[in-house]
């Protein structure tokens, strides 16, 4: 494992801690500022919206500097935001600190995903991204429960001060271990925006909003749900968050393992099971043992979707992945904000602390329907691509050797008396840009996905083996 992945995981650990620890200390923050639980829930929504807007904005600005320098700047911004939260005299300042810290979140994971993928072989990209996100899942096993316990014992302000220190450690890790790779290859904003012409990128982000949003509908209000409905003590919330973190850790491993092998089946299974688990949580939240089991299961199923969705976006936006990757991280948090807001509305309407689970089930079920649509469109693109014959341009035909004007059938090679065999060009799949060829035929060089499907692309060239 490259040491740079360890540095990225350290940064992810700090970011994951501050994102999720607010759930464990939400009642304490609400009491300190004299606001209701749904109002305090805006600290979750505000953070999430900050990620949504900060991810594309800071990623675009970061195209002018090296990825390492940008990662260091983002960790510095993260430290400032958490320090402001720890010192906040009123609720509005606390919310401002959360938003400042959140601006670093999406761009860090978006740029970090690209850096992690570039450090390894193509067939190991999802696994490398998974290692970076391991820091986020470990934060939910160690950082979030530890921060919750610290907040209950010494006050929530101490928790956010400790998170700021974690940010300093992450900053030093990036500075020491991440290599200086220069500016991104696609430094032009116009080139990065071209990735969003692919409808599959938008579908993936919509699945991200709805699918992972379903998790946050339940987890945002987990402290009052477990204490008021399941009957746990305030201190027990710490250990319940450990279980949720363990579930996320296992889901991350599962998603990383299968995203490189069976991406769509993984999404179908995880999204469908997540919607069912959230429905069951409405009933199991009334029993201590069943509530703990269901909470762990929701953590695992929710995070099992993260790596497949992130890899899908990277595959679809392979010509300009940085902005699309960061935007998808923003989509995760847009789902968080939407779910936290909708869940708060159901509680404020008097439907009880378990009512957000219904919202989560509806959101995750909608994501499952979108995944079916995405798979259908992908199969149609593949079938259309497999029947395409790429021909030589007129200029090439005038200068090609005589035998090339009457090429062999697709998938076959012509063997002239001298020189290497010349083969009929082959078609490409629309999903990953890799070559689709008949068994026993020579491979062809893959063409960039953008040039294959852009409506204004130049005439395709014949590819010789």
TrEMBL record:
Q: Does the keyword Transmembrane helix apply?
A: yes
Region entry Disordered: which residue ranges?
A: 388-418
Q: Where located?
A: Cell membrane
The main location is: membrane
Membrane-crossing segments per the record: 44-63, 70-93, 99-121, 128-146, 158-178, 199-223, 235-255, 262-283, 289-309, 330-352, 358-377
Q: What membrane topology does the UniProt entry give?
A: Multi-pass membrane protein
Query: Pfam families this protein is in?
Result: MFS_1
Residues of the Major facilitator superfamily (MFS) profile domain: 4-382
Keyword Transmembrane helix belongs to the record = yes
- UniProt xrefs under InterPro entries: MFS, MFS_dom, MFS_Efflux_Transporters, MFS_trans_sf
**Domain of life, per the record?**
Bacteria
Record CDD domains: MFS_NepI_like
SUPFAM superfamilies named in the record: MFS general substrate transporter
What keywords tag this UniProt record? Cell membrane, Membrane, Transmembrane, Transmembrane helix
**Composition bias, kind Low complexity: at what positions?**
398-410
Return the PANTHER family for the record. Answer: CHLORAMPHENICOL EFFLUX PUMP RV0191, PURINE EFFLUX PUMP PBUE
- What is this protein identified as? MFS transporter
């Amino acid at each position: 494992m490259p040491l740079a992945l360890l540095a990225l995981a350290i940064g992810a650990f700090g970011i994951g801690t501050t994102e999720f620890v607010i759930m464990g200390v939400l009642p304490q923050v609400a009491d300190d500022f004299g606001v209701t639980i749904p109002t305090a829930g805006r600290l979750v929504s505000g953070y999430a919206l900050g990620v949504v807007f900060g991810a594309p904005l800071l990623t675009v600005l970061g195209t002018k500097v090296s990825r390492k320098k940008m990662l260091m700047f983002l960790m510095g911004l993260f430290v400032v935001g958490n320090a402001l939260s720890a010192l906040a005299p009123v609720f509005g300042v606390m919310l401002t600190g959360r938003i400042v810290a959140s601006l670093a979140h999406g761009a860090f994971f978006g740029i970090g995903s690209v850096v992690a993928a570039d450090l390894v072989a193509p067939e190991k990209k999802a696994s490398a991204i998974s290692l970076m996100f391991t820091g986020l899942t470990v934060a939910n096993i160690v950082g979030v429960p530890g921060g919750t316990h610290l907040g209950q014992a010494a006050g929530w302000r101490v928790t956010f001060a400790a998170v700021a220190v974690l940010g300093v450690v992450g900053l030093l890790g990036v500075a020491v271990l991440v290599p200086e790779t220069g500016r991104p290859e696609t430094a032009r904003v116009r080139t990065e925006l071209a990735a969003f012409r692919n409808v599959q990128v938008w579908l993936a982000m919509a699945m991200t909003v709805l699918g992972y949003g379903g998790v946050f509908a339940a987890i945002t209000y987990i402290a009052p749900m477990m204490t008021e409905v399941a009957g746990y003590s305030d201190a027990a919330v710490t250990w319940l968050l450990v279980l949720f973190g363990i579930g996320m850790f296992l889901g991350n491993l599962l998603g990383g393992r299968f995203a490189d092998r069976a991406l769509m089946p993984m999404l179908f299974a995880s999204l469908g099971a997540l919607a069912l688990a959230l429905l069951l949580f409405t009933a199991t939240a009334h029993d201590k043992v069943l509530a703990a089991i269901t909470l762990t299961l929701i953590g695992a199923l929710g995070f099992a979707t993260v790596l497949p969705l992130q890899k899908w976006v990277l595959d679809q936006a392979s010509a300009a992945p940085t902005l699309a990757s960061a935007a998808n991280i923003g989509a995760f948090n847009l789902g968080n904000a939407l779910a936290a807001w909708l869940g708060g509305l159901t509680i404020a309407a008097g439907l009880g602390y378990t009512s957000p689970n219904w919202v989560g089930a509806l959101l995750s079920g909608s994501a499952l329907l979108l995944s079916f649509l995405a798979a259908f469109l992908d199969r149609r693109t593949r079938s259309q691509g497999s029947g395409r014959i790429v021909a030589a341009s007129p200029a090439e035909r005038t200068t090609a050797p005589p035998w090339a004007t009457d090429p062999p059938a697709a998938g076959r090679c012509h063997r002239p008396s001298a020189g290497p065999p010349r083969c009929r060009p082959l078609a490409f799949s629309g999903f990953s840009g890799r070559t689709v060829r008949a068994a026993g035929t020579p491979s062809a060089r893959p063409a960039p996905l953008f040039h294959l499907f852009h409506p204004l692309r130049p005439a395709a060239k014949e590819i010789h083996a």
